[in-house]
Amino acid sequence: MQGNTACAEGALAAGCRFFGGYPITPSTEVAEHMAAKLPRVGGVFIQMEDEIAGIASVIGASWTGARAMTATSGPGFSLMMENIGFAVMTETPCVLVNIQRGGPSTGQPTMSAQADMLQCRFGSHGDYSIIALSPASVQEMFELTVDAFNLADRFRVPVFLMADEIIGHMRERIEIPDSVPREERKILPKGTPPFRADEGMIPGFPQFGKGYGVHVTGLTHDERGYPCATSPSLHEDLVKRLVAKVESARHEIADYRVTNPEAEVVFITYGSPARTVEQVLHDHPDERIGHLRFRVVWPFPEKALDKFPDAKVFLVPEQNLGQIAREIERHTCIPVVPLPRFGGALHTPAELEKAVEAWR
Predict the structure, then answer these.
(1) Ordered domains of the chain (ranges, CATH)
(2) Is 136 in contact with 275 (CB distance < 8 Å)?
(3) For residue 284, what are the CA distances in angstroms to 52, 64, 281, 289?
């Protein structure tokens, strides 16, 4: 199965019943598959007039109780940023798939990149926190799409599946289970203010059409949802909670894979560059070479770096100029060496082997 198709199948298995979006290379196959399959399971597919309308429709559908998603790539992702901030402020669970391609601007529509990783974390204005997953195989396109919906409903946040063109368009064998785990949204008790959070900092969900009186606004709001945009203390409490509900669970959300924890030279990857590292380890087995692969990139799992107590260097191959390498540098005293590769080509095993030899 193709990676983009596996993503759509994962969404369907997870109970997604609304897709609103606009076609854009290299993500269009996600939309095409959802357009064909959603009506058969009682769902709704809408091609909107642009990506701004696409994410707006997803937010609206989510408030009716539907598991809702969209899929896009770089230019469309940029158009969605304002409404992503709206989804954060209104605590709207939804899933956004970004099959990354080369930029800036129109860039390379058919070529792979990983240059939107900082944009997904910081692209909308204001202080907030999100969750972003990064698959490295067709199987993970299915599995991590399911995880994305569960995380979105659990934490009431937009969750990003940050794949790249290589993973989106490759074809591999995939195993699809008969059923997948599903985490339901927390129910809001009747009579409770719709934005009153419990000790977990996550309010129950007041679904439209279920008898709740709820006002939904992107303005700073009180527990009732009513605008209160001039109170410094209320705004501070609200924004701190929106950040803390994710960041306080960062170690629980973390998902990564560790190979050779006693290694001195350690590759750190996410997405398609992981495959080249795995090829190097397969061709030249050496316990002195380790591999840390992130499946969840945001919130950043800094504790994973401690899994390599003997590490002398972290080598970070990315399809960008070092976006996550900079984040790794913030959390370690060990030398971090970015290995950027962009323009659409993936690192070769020979290139990574040369980087290892420089540190032996």
Answers:
(1) 1-253 (3.40.50.970), 255-357 (3.40.50.920)
(2) yes
(3) 48, 53, 5, 9
DSSP helix/strand/coil, 294: strand
The residue ranges of the chain whose pLDDT is under 50 are none
- Going by the DSSP 8-state scheme, the letter that residue 137 receives in this structure is S
- Name the 3-class secondary structure at 14: coil
- Torsion-angle region of 260 (φ positive above 0: left; ψ -120 to 50: alpha; else: beta): left
Residue 326's pLDDT is 97
Give the side-chain half-sphere CA count within 13 A for 328. 27
Judge contact between 73 and 100, C-beta under 8 A: yes
Which pLDDT belongs to residue 334?
97
- Residue 268's pLDDT is 98
Nearest Cα to Cα of residue 343 among 63, 88, 103: 103
Phi, then psi, of 97 in degrees rounded to 5: -100, 125
pLDDT of residue 360: 78
Torsion angle (degrees, nearest 10) of CA 76, 80, 81, 86? -170
Cβ proximity of 328 and 339 under 8 Å: no
Please tell me whether residue 57 adopts helix, strand or coil conformation: helix
Cα 147 from Cα 41, distance rounded (Å): 20
**Three-class SS state of 130:** coil
